[in-house]
User: Fold these one by one.
Assistant:
Number 1:
Amino acid sequence: MAEVRLRSIEKQFSGGVHAVKPCDLDIRDGEFLVLVGPSGCGKSTLLRMIAGLEEPSGGTINIGSRDVTHVDPADRDIAMVFQNYALYPHKNAKENMAFALRLRKIPKAERERRITETAKMLGIEELMNRKPGAMSGGQQQRVALGRAIVRDPACFLFDEPLSNLDAKMRNHTRSELRRLHKELQTTSVYVTHDQEEAMTLGDRVAVMKDGVMQQLGTPLEVYRAPANLFVAGFIGTPAMNLMPGEAKDGQATLASGFQVSVPDSLNGTITVGVRPQHFRVASDSDQGAVELTARLVEPLGDLADVHLEAADGSTLLARLDSEWAPTEGATCPIVIDRDRHHCFDSSGQRVN
Ligand SMILES: Nc1ncnc2c1ncn2[C@@H]1O[C@H](COP(=O)(O)OP(=O)(O)OP(=O)(O)O)[C@@H](O)[C@H]1O
Ligand SMILES: [Mg+2]
């Protein structure tokens, strides 16, 4: 077990792409940290630098008390699991799991013990004599996980390990990973572009964009207080509604027709964000309701996603209780629930 410490770590590729801008990050001992962001933001590059597969252009990497910046990948005491499982096709599951242990001259009895224990933990005992070609994607991925686990590394590094699985298998394996991490408590860094996966798996999430870490926090911190417009739009589903407005003396008028209170420090052009879940149909006692027209209603059962046309012609998405949701074409008074709106200044930074 170990903490992973990055200091001013960066990567500039020879072509000039600055894939990771200087970044400080402390991954705590035993923590499951998720790096999340859109395609091309530098997640894999950062992970590959921790693994030693990519030489940093600057900065240092510590795993535990050791500076591993220039240490060979094989000597970093890490285990990686990729999207493509990269199992040896001619070896069966057991041999795949045993291979790295053999290389490290772990005695046979200890090898057997670790493999049996891990296979049991993952429910793959019956696959031990099968080759990858005779396994489903989900089974191969579990064997790949098993191969990483038996090594008992200081740190696991995962790069989109679930993205080749179908939705059901992905959900299942995701819960499995969560349970495994509780059990093993090995420091883990997990890369995904899927914010939902990040939110459900991470003790903390680091949101990246264009090679820059935008925010680091627990899933709820990032959800409840996104640091800037990018994080606001990226985390949470359906995506947050972002509405332009003008602020003055603690009040803002939004182009969509709403009036909201804002911090006194905010003046001039601002953006106000409201999650679809935080609009609701006004009751008689509500003040400041805005009449909006439902252009499209998508029933979800108890709830409905209602696309509302605002005063400025923009569309707002509201996730409403089906019982009160308007029908298509109807108008309906809408309020923002208990002032659950987010304020961003003209540079896109959150202001509380
Ligand atoms: N070997 C390389 N040479 C030059 N540029 C590269 C190389 N590897 C990656 N890049 C560039 O660095 C940037 C970050 O790439 P990276 O693979 O880290 O993104 P990512 O966040 O993992 O994206 P994805 O979600 O698509 O996997 C991209 O612009 C990519 O084109
Ligand atoms: Mg990647």
Note: The chain has eight helices and 20 strands.
Number 2:
Amino acid sequence: MKRIAILGSTGSIGCSTLRVVESYPDRFAVATLAAGSNLELACEQAIRWRPQVVSMAAERDADALALRLKVAGLAEIEVVWGPKGNVRVATHPEADFVVSAIVGVAGLEATYEAVRAGKSVGLANKEAMVAAGELITAEARKQGKPLLPIDSEHNAVHQCLRGGRMDEVERIWLTASGGPFLNTPQSDFASITVEQALNHPTWKMGRRITIDSATLMNKGFEVIEACRLFNLPPSKVEVVVHPQSTIHSMVEFVDGSILAQFSVTDMRLPILYALTYPERVPSELRFPVGDLRHLDFCPPDMAKFPCLRLAYEAAEQGGAKTIALNAADEVAVAAFLDGKIGFNAIPAIIEDVISATEAGKLESIQQVLELDAEARRSAQHRVQQRSVASSPKRELV
Ligand SMILES: NC(=O)c1ccc[n+]([C@@H]2O[C@H](COP(=O)([O-])OP(=O)(O)OC[C@H]3O[C@@H](n4cnc5c(N)ncnc54)[C@H](OP(=O)(O)O)[C@@H]3O)[C@@H](O)[C@H]2O)c1
């Protein structure tokens, strides 16, 4: 029986993980859960799964949850909160495997501490790898424990890499759906609405990653994540647009052979793979091969989607540059979702913040968090400047 800690249990990946756990009651049990602010769902999950510990982001919600669990006769469930609560969930002695699925840099510390505590980690939270991948992978190597990618592209690469040795890899190909604006002329980008940007053509995901998919920043993060997970330079990680999202990614070997992984577009499959690795277990997640008709591929348009270019540049420089990339994106995407800035302002703000950031070597998670806070302040300042500059009559840019 594998006992699972889920960081971000109330999110899209967290809920998919619980569905996998539910499908395999003889293999998996829930050890601990960490949620953000969705009190109703966290309470429902705690009552259903009876974890040892539940964490909420805020003390107020933790108090409310503790009260509800007491009324439900479950006072023995420990309720904690905040970053320390997330770490408690991630490092609990009852947990064998940690699914890291908190969105944003909020998931960083707990993910790192899980690795440091010698847990096997299934990694969905890509922002942790973007901000502190060098430190996390170094610690995982030290602990001799795997970091198993849940992100469908890296999961696909992980599967394809079982077909050869790392020194036989020529490059990896990350596929990108292209997002909802693949065929939208650049001249229309300034008027893109939040609703349009949240309408992803192939995947149903959380709000931030959906906007990141629309700007192709999500693919940029994945390039950085791939470099760090598989120890490859950015020049060996290519992006190819593949609107059907059927091929999840590919590995090209030195002899010219290319291995691709394809399957249904359902995150339960990469989650199941990570939870059961190195085994494969039967599932109902079948791909109807007979229905396959068209698979289209084309290079990404870096001019139309500057976020991808910015991510490659940050990947080359590493250190504080990738921290700034993630922090500025997180702030700019939140501002876009709040209607404070336009779609085109997202890359503009990120580029400004990165240019103002010195690269530099990272020594500790504390330093990463400080640099993250600094980049966030810088991004907030730029958001404010743009919000003030745009009157209701002027278009948000
Ligand atoms: N969804 C996908 O298909 C997919 C695919 C690949 C990678 N990923 C990555 O996986 C991560 C999660 O994505 P998602 O789509 O599942 O996002 P989501 O649906 O927005 O869920 C985010 C989760 O993080 C929790 N959370 C937010 N702030 C928190 C905090 N301060 N402390 C504790 N928990 C906090 C949320 O809690 P509340 O809801 O309770 O506030 C929620 O459980 C992201 O890094 C994303 O890039 C997602």
Note: Residues 152-264+298-314 form one domain.
Number 3:
Amino acid sequence: MVPIASSDAYLPEERAARICSLTTSLPFSHLCFPDTVLGGADIGRRVAVSLGQRPCTGVWKLENHQLICRGAAGKTDITRPLSQVIIALEQCADQIDESRHECKRLQAEVTTSVATRIEDLGKAKVDPNDIDLTEANFILSGGNGIADWAHFHDAARLLGATEGASRVAVDDGFMPRERQVGATGKWVTARVYIAVGISGAIQHMQGIGQCQKVIAINTDDSCNMVKRADLSVIADSDEVLTALIAALNTDTSDSAATSDVSDALL
Ligand SMILES: Cc1cc2nc3c(=O)[nH]c(=O)nc-3n(C[C@H](O)[C@H](O)[C@H](O)COP(=O)(O)OP(=O)(O)OC[C@H]3O[C@@H](n4cnc5c(N)ncnc54)[C@H](O)[C@@H]3O)c2cc1C
């Protein structure tokens, strides 16, 4: 797999040029990139163009010296001849087994000047609630088990989380309709979904099926949300939110605390 990260800056042209310069000094049979937005999909395509190669993208399987790629927005498989530049999906990764692999750090100099048309202006501060729920990575969602909604909003702000809600919370007027998660609301794909005072009705669970990690805060240790959760806190929602706010407030700077917490959770 091609090493990509050396700095946080977004410099796809320079990174692609570095990889291309390595290919002139190191013989290689295949260059593999992860097919993720920031992980290598873009750089892999740039490298392929520079090398005059047609890349195989959305690869999920190698079979009989052919690559099986996802096509038509994942609805169909396309079989392609083995290419030198492979941009692979996560499913392509080997199961953990006994085989040993080596990972080497390589230094690459860019000898020719790189025409950069992209300027990285750094990360922009975004209000988590401006992110559409369906795209949010980190969601704090509230349900009927919340008594103090002001606390809920404070906790979401300090955590840097996007707010979600159960239908009951929406129907009762505590949250706007566009915040509803579930079968008749939004289907979310967060990496971390914290459900506060949400029982886990089937219609709600349908909306969080694609979430990676679920944390439940609930007084009922037998509710469906606790059964589904990777981590549960069996306690009163207001007590937990109050403790969370106090812990986050001990940091003098909101933004520092916010990024620390969301980075740690994600
Ligand atoms: C056709 C249809 C479509 C639906 N679509 C959706 C949908 O899209 N999304 C959706 O969410 N629902 C949907 N529903 C509603 C769904 O069936 C549930 O009624 C709803 O999800 C329940 O919301 P809740 O978990 O917030 O409330 P409740 O079921 O009342 O659960 C409240 C939870 O809070 C806990 N609790 C209570 N007090 C505390 C406390 N002090 N501290 C901590 N925890 C506490 C309780 O133990 C309980 O688990 C739909 C229903 C129908 C019929």
Note: Residues 143-145, 166-169, 180-185, 197-199, 201, 203-204, 207, 218-220, 223, 236-237 surround flavin-adenine dinucleotide (CB under 6 Å).
Number 4:
Amino acid sequence: MLDNTVKLTEEQVSYYRENGFVQIDSILSKEEVEELRGYLEETMGVQNGNSTQTAASGDMYYKVLNQRVNTWRDHGGMARFVLSRRFADAAKQLTGAEGIRLFHDHALLKMPQDSKPTPWHQDMPYWPMNERGALSIWIALDDVDENNGCLMLVPKSQKIKNLKSIDLVNPEDIFSDEGAKEIDRNTAAVVRMKAGSCSFHDGLTFHYAHANQTDKPRRALAIIFMPDGTTYSGANHICTDGLGLVKGDVLAGGLFPKLA
Ligand SMILES: O=C(O)CCC(=O)C(=O)O
């Protein structure tokens, strides 16, 4: 049952709050990983649905990520996982927020052959939110290490402010930003894990993913959660454009459901 919750340890919660990320092993069973892989495969091929493929094969961005946003809006199986209480409740425990809403999910595949790393960046600058506190769960659907695209995360980097968004195809070096002077990339954790394990990272945490040098796709599902009450900043975003939101509106309702 994906609605069962996982009680995180005090160490996991305090590690997240101090360092801006935490790894949690085996959040999914082997059977659940197998099930989710099947749904993911069906979803990646959807044409004209309610989810969005952000780049086509051959595009430069596709070499960084073969990405599909809002898979839950097309596939009931993806929805079962994305909307499950298990992940949202873990986000609630980590943040201490009174409630957790979905912002969006995205399937993140790193394809074999000419794969590029995901450059160092923060997520928050891409999100149209006034308050900090939003976070991602990144669920590995394959065993991951430096050879096929595991994440690297810089401890305590969430303590600095929201810098500017980085072009993921022609990246500037985020570490050369004046605001990032105190962040040392040499302290980054290499987050190797087994399929079915996950990490959570704060929207401000500096992170990177290695290129995939193997001959198989690296599959991951990331879900972005936000504390209930988070408000719209007015910036453009694929998930809010066209919804008629005005600056300061609470991000809520059926497209941003409260999950925990
Ligand atoms: O999976 C990747 O390569 C990058 C993931 C990422 O940047 C994120 O989940 O915020």
Note: The mean pLDDT is 96.
